[in-house]
TrEMBL record:
Signal peptide: none annotated. It comes from Longimycelium tulufanense. Keywords: Repeat, Transferase. Pfam families: Hexapep_2. This is Acyltransferase. Transmembrane segments: none annotated. PANTHER family: ACETYLTRANSFERASE, ACETYLTRANSFERASE RV3034C-RELATED.
Amino acid sequence: MDHGIPANPYNPHAWIIGEPSIGPGTWVGAFTVLDGSGGLAIGAGCDISCGVHIYTHSTVRRCVTGRACPEVDRAPVRIGDRVFLGAHAVVLMGVTIGDQAVVGAGAVVCSDIPARTLAVGVPARPTARVVVDGSEVRFEPLHTAVFS
């Protein structure tokens, strides 16, 4: 059955717009939206969980002006190597997520996430440092000063 989603090499149930750069070994789950219309680079070895949406454009100004502002805003998204995006996370235009970062399920990423950082919530906020030691991974809580 044809569901109307253009074919792509990652997942038959992922909607990929434009021509994003996706590194080797990256896994893309079902029901994802990868918007490459404003420039999207996803590094190697990432997991983009089911239901993740990554946007590189916004039609807010066009919409609220009744189309008096005809432009669609666009800004690239950059995702580093070995980044995990949890189920149903949303990444908004203009964001950079550093290498080995972890974004929790349902998080909405509106600003940059540093490398090796766990970010959760709406909006996504850094809560822990990701420490990788061989095959072991641990999350070291950040001090509350990060939220001020």
